[in-house]
Amino acid sequence: MKSAALALFLCAACSVSAAPEGAQRVFYTASFAPGSGQKALEQVIEAYRTRLGDTEVRIRTDVAASTITAEFAFSVAFHETKTGGTLAEPLAADPKATSFVTEGDVPVRGLAHVGEEWLRYDAQGGERGLFGTQVGAHAAGAKLRIYEDDRVRTLLGTHGELEFLVAPKTTPDAEGPAGSERIRRRSRSTGEYVLLERPTEARFRFGNADIAKVGISSDEMGYPAISFELAGSRQGDFSDWTKTLFGKGLAIVLDEEILTLAAVRSRLPGKGIIQGTPGFSPGEVEALVKLLQLPRLPLPPLAIRVEYLR
């Protein structure tokens, strides 16, 4: 099995004393541009309720701060993943031991339950002994129960603007074709910015309005992915466009973040899959498929803050 090194995520606010399956509440606060105004925030709330459907949630607005806070029960926001994994190396009973290594693939962020201890982790940093549990020593081979909230984070934190761009085979300082628009977008996998090019011809620009169908699929590695099919009237343009990309890269970008960046070696039909790098979690794919079927949020969220309170 593949080993993955993970770091623990610093919890923003944790004043709890019980395991999260109980009366635990989770608060997600979305921040928007200062001065967004009550009317615009109310439109966002209406869009949130459409995205969340019948999900039990309490929503409140702070117009002065331009924020919207959604409150969920822990059991609504989080769910246990099917791939828990085990510890590949011992984990010391030391609050400063803020990293662990697993045997088996686990989501890139989430809550981990090992022995009697709860931990929160992602690639940035972390905290031991959440929910009032004791920081303990855990031997190699100890089973991990992993919980993730990617569905809720994605539905609340994603504006929903999809775009297909070109990764030209040039040096960063090279000039693009006459009239071309060169832009930089952040890579989901590395966090670094990549030089991309927006097509100059209108018929070679594709976005949300051109997508006729989306669904849940899987990539060549077996990770969850998003299948898409363009409207019939746009499939010929897409095929013609991809013919011009031989030797270049096709970037599928959502909210200015590169989800997929792949070399184009043949003419493509007007359909395909969107795969995450690293792979999407099932919760992310479920949420992304849903939001790509709906209008974009009226305002783009700037950030999501998460708090855990009893």
Helices and strands in order, then pairings?
Layout lengths: L2 E6 L5 E2 L9 E7 L6 H15 L5 E5 L4 E7 H4 L1 E2 L5 E2 L11 E5 L6 E5 L2 E6 L4 E4 L13 E5 L1 H8 L4 E6 L13 E7 L5 E6 L12 E8 L5 E7 L1 H12 L5 E6 L2 E7 L7 E4 L7 H11 L10 E7 L1
Parallel strand pairs: 2-21, 14-19
Antiparallel strand pairs: 1-8, 1-10, 3-5, 3-21, 4-5, 6-12, 7-8, 9-10, 9-12, 10-11, 13-18, 14-15, 16-17, 17-20, 18-19
Helix pairs in contact: 3-5
Name its key features.
single chain, 2 domains, eight-stranded antiparallel beta sheet, 16% helix, globular, disordered N terminus
Indicate how many domains the architecture comprises.
2
Q: How many beta-strand segments? A: 21
Distance between the termini: 37 Å
Could you report the average pLDDT, rounded to the nearest whole number? 85
* Count of DSSP H/I helices: 5
Which sequence of SSEs, written as H and E, runs from N to C?
A: EEEHEEHEEEEEEEHEEEEEHEEEHE
Spatial shape: globular
- State the secondary-structure class: alpha+beta
Helix content: 10-25%
Low-confidence stretches: 1-19, 171-179
- Biggest beta sheet attributes: 8 strands, antiparallel
Please state the CA-atom Rg, rounded to the nearest Å.
21 Å
How much beta, percentage-wise?
A: 35-45%
What does this entry look like structurally?
By secondary structure, the protein is α+β, with helices and mostly antiparallel strands. It folds into two domains: 1-160 and 298-310, no CATH class; 162-206 and 224-278, no CATH class. It is 16% helix and 37% strand. It contains five helices and 21 strands. Strands 1, 6, 7, 8, 9, 10, 11 and 12 form an eight-stranded antiparallel beta sheet that branches. A five-stranded mixed beta sheet has the order 2-21-3-5-4. The chain has a five-stranded mixed beta sheet with strand order 13-18-19-14-15, with no helix packed on it. α3 runs parallel beside α5 (282-292). The longest helix is centred in the N-terminal third of the chain and has 15 residues, at 38-52.
